[in-house]
Each structure stands twice: as structure tokens, then as C-alpha cells.
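Input C-alpha cells:
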């Protein structure tokens, strides 16, 4: 059994490890255009922000450790074509290589900003660790930066650049940060903290050109020019699927590869995983693309298990998410009020402001929880949160609550831990549910 994997990110490495686990005798080859595998790109913004002391800390395993697991990783090696009929891939500089099963884990790219000057030096897409190491040195002498679109990674980069003492301007056509995901009232504390930190926020504005002589020196927008010696691209993710499309594999409405519950594409011997796929949303069945590293890894494990002859299914998703945006944590699950309205999904909302520890315990932080439920059944449809701590655990719990179909009535009477240092008497999730019922 020869299993070829295209891509060495979370999905590709998850797939290779699972395949080897199911069939230790299988020959598993990972082709990656990158210089490294087994590092956490998720930590890059925090090294830029100096919360983490060095990029070395982001590496999870050495190249030798992969050799020891029997996975053959081909670094800086690009696959240029897939021939499903011949069961072959073309590898740049090495010709054709055959496979019995192929796993595509080619990931994502930032949506291109198609304006003049997009090829100037000084425009940074935060993604690969070696490039991040080089860019980090440049940040020392950087005075002003423009962030183009306030997507999730861009939010982390705002905090990082502010920590580095760099003057930051955010330019986004939307009316608030991460507008396609989060409600304006939930992101408001973050927006306020950026304002307090001196971040210039230009909502409803659009970049028209990057300007400079070799290297960027300013950014032209519909509302005027902004001086900048650095541009950070924070646009949404697009699936990296030119190879799959050229091979005739079925691509969905989002641009992601269509896969079944076993992560199999329209070709029975080709699997796909991670941000190059699209996955149905658990409530609406709407295909979603560009999820997270934890989704990519779990999908990779599913694809690798099945490709090697095992059996594992990947279920529709409810997408718990969360992140630290400066001094605030934000997060949620499924959809919030804005997205529910945009989808035309009838909903009712309950909201509560609470605290994360006993009110007298040092370090107590505020937290706002907002629940979205289906009218009538009162089934939980989604949630959004902002607070000082405790967002991740609540997002994970609420994702499971949506998945199993809990109603806000059940949440209103949930049991909760009360211990001064780690939790308040009243759980804000429960209070939000009680408020929803009271309003009804
Ligand atoms: C700065 C940053 C912060 C992040 N923060 C978080 C976070 O907080 N939480 C979280 O869950 N996730 C986070 N992520 C993960 C991210 O959002 C994605 O979900 C994740 O990277 C998807 O993994 P993937 O393996 O599908 O794709 P990718 O990581 O894009 O990996 C794809 C790989 O395929 C290779 N490749 C592509 N085409 C070819 C080809 N033709 N031949 C050979 N190789 C090829 C690429 O070089 C790349 O190594 C972060 C990512 C970044 C960059």
C-alpha cells in the first residue's frame, strides 16, 4: 500500500500519522512545499507579540522524529499535477510517482488583494514559520503598519503589533472586526480596547493600491492615503485547489473539495482533509470552508485512517472557536445573531453579563454570553462570548450542546461548578438562558 499525501500542515500530518497507525507496513510519503512540518503556525502571532520568546518553541517534533515514525516527508517538494486514472502525481524535479491512495491536504491561502502594487516588498502574509522568522526581524525597525481586513489571524496580529510599539491602521470594508462571524455587540470591547491603544480603525474603507518604490511606503484607500512601511494581509482563507480542480475532482460552492463522511472525494482512491475541503454545518447543512487547525487535524486523521483501510467518520461541524484579541477573549459556536439574520433563520436571543470567578477573588473578569435559539423548540442554535477568561471551555461545551440538541430550558437549569478561584455562583451561560426565557 503506497499512500501519498499532498501537504504537511495539520491535515497532512494528521493523515500521515493515522495511516501509518492503521497500516504500519504502508509506505506513507508526505510531499510538502514548505521547509518544515510539525510546527504550530497558530503560535506565530504570539512570537511576533513577544508573548512567546522564540519561534523554536513552536516546533512540535524534529525531522528525525518523523524519520523514526516511518513517515517519508519530502520537504520543499511541490506536486504539480494529479492523474487519477494513472494513480500518479507529478512531483516537481522528480517526475511521476505512483500511489494506491492519495490524500490531498493542500490547505489554504489568503484571498488575494487584487490592487496595483500587490507584488511590492513589505507585504506580509502571516503563515509560514521560516518567513515569520525573517519578518520578525523587520518588525524591529517597523514604525507603521496597515492591516488589510480584520480576519481572525489579523486580530491576533493587531495585538502583536501594538505590543511591539508599531502604529497600526486597520482597513476593512465591513463595519466591525470579523464581521462575517461575530456580532457587533460582542466585538465591541475589543474595538474599544483597540481605540484605547491608539489603533486607527477605518471601517467601511477599501484598499485601492499599495504604493512604493520597490518596498511599500503607503497604502492608497478610497478614503485617502495611509503611510506604512508594512502591510499585513488579513483577508479570509481561500481553499488551495488548483491541482484538484485540474484533476477533475468535484469542487463545491465554497471552492472547497467535496468529501463524504469518510473524507473521500469524488474519486474513490483520493481523500482530502483540512482547509482545502468544505464540510456541512451541523444545523443548516450549508457547506463551510476554512475552519481551524483542530478541524484540519481531525479531518486528516479521518482521511488517513480510511485511506489505509480503517474506518472512521467525520461528522458535520458546529465550529467552536475562540481567540485572544489583546486583553479580551472572544469566541463562539455555530452562528450568532448577525449570521442567523443574514441566513434568514428565525431565532430568539438571550444575553447575560457575568463574572468568571467569585466577585471577591483576585483576577475576576467580566464575561458576556449571548445565546441564539430556535423559536418554539428553544433548541440552542449558537452562541457568542466575550470576556477576560473561560471562553474556550464554554465554546467547547456549547458546541456539544448544539450538537446534541439541548434547549435553552435545559441550559437555564444546568448545574455548574462554583469555586471562588475558578467559577462564580451564577454560570453566565445559565443566566443568559434564563434571560431568554424571561424575555419570551
Ligand atoms: C498565523 C496562523 C494562526 C493560526 N491560528 C490558529 C488557531 O489559533 N487555532 C487553530 O485551530 N488554527 C489556527 N491556524 C490554522 C489554520 O487556520 C488552518 O486551519 C490550518 O493551517 C489548516 O491546516 P491544513 O493542513 O488544512 O492547511 P495548511 O496549514 O495550509 O497546510 C497546507 C500545506 O500544503 C502544502 N502544499 C500546498 N500545495 C502543495 C503542493 N502542490 N505540493 C506540496 N505541498 C503543498 C503547503 O506548503 C502547506 O504546508 C492558524 C494558522 C496560521 C497561519
Amino acid at each position: 500500500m503506497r499512500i501519498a499525501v499532498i501537504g504537511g500542515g495539520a491535515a497532512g500530518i494528521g493523515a500521515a500519522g493515522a495511516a501509518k497507525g492503521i497500516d504500519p507496513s504502508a509506505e506513507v510519503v508526505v510531499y510538502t512545499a514548505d521547509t518544515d512540518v510539525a510546527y504550530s503556525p497558530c503560535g506565530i502571532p504570539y512570537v511576533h507579540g513577544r508573548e512567546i520568546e522564540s519561534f523554536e518553541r513552536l516546533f512540535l517534533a524534529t525531522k528525525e522524529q518523523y524519520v523514526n515514525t516511518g513517515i517519508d516527508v519530502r520537504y520543499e517538494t511541490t506536486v504539480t499535477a494529479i492523474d487519477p486514472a494513472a494513480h500518479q502525481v507529478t512531483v516537481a524535479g522528480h517526475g511521476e510517482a505512483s500511489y494506491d491512495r492519495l490524500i490531498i491536504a493542500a490547505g489554504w491561502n489568503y484571498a488575494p488583494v487584487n490592487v496595483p502594487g500587490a507584488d511590492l516588498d513589505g507585504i506580509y502574509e502571516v503563515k509560514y514559520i521560516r518567513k515569520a522568522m525573517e519578518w520578525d526581524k523587520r518588525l524591529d525597525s517597523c514604525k507603521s503598519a496597515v492591516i488589510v481586513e480584520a480576519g481572525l489571524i489579523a486580530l491576533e496580529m493587531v495585538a502583536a503589533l501594538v505590543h511591539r510599539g508599531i502604529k497600526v491602521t486597520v482597513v476593512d470594508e465591513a463595519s466591525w472586526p470579523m464581521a462575517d462571524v461575530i456580532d457587533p455587540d460582542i466585538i465591541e470591547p475589543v474595538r474599544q480596547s483597540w481605540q484605547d491603544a491608539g489603533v486607527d480603525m477605518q471601517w467601511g474603507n477599501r484598499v485601492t493600491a499599495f504604493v512604493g518604490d520597490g518596498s511599500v511606503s503607503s497604502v492608497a484607500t478610497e478614503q485617502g492615503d495611509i503611510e506604512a512601511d508594512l502591510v499585513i494581509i488579513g483577508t479570509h482563507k481561500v481553499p488551495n485547489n488548483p491541482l484538484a480542480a485540474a484533476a477533475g475532482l468535484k469542487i463545491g460552492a465554497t471552492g472547497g473539495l467535496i468529501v463524504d463522511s469518510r473524507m473521500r472525494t469524488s474519486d474513490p482512491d483520493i481523500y482530502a482533509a483540512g482547509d482545502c475541503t468544505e464540510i456541512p454545518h451541523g444545523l443548516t447543512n450549508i457547506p463551510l470552508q476554512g475552519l481551524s487547525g483542530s478541524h484540519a487535524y481531525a479531518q486528516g486523521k479521518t482521511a488517513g485512517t480510511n485511506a489505509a483501510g480503517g474506518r472512521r467518520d467525520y461528522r458535520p461541524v458546529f465550529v467552536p472557536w475562540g481567540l485572544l484579541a489583546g486583553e479580551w477573549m472572544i469566541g463562539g459556536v455555530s452562528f450568532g445573531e448577525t449570521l442567523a439574520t443574514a441566513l434568514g433563520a428565525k431565532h430568539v436571543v438571550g444575553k447575560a453579563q457575568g463574572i468568571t470567578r467569585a466577585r471577591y477573588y483576585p483576577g475576576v473578569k467580566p464575561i458576556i454570553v449571548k445565546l441564539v435559539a430556535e423559536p418554539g423548540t428553544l433548541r440552542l442554535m449558537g452562541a457568542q462570548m466575550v470576556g477576560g477568561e473561560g471562553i474556550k471551555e464554554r465554546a467547547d461545551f456549547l458546541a456539544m450542546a448544539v450538537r446534541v440538541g439541548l434547549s435553552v430550558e435545559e441550559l437555564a437549569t444546568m448545574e455548574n461548578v462554583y469555586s471562588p478561584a475558578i467559577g462564580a455562583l451564577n454560570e453566565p451561560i445559565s443566566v443568559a438562558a434564563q434571560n431568554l426565557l424571561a424575555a419570551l
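The chain has twelve helices and 26 strands. The mean pLDDT is 96.
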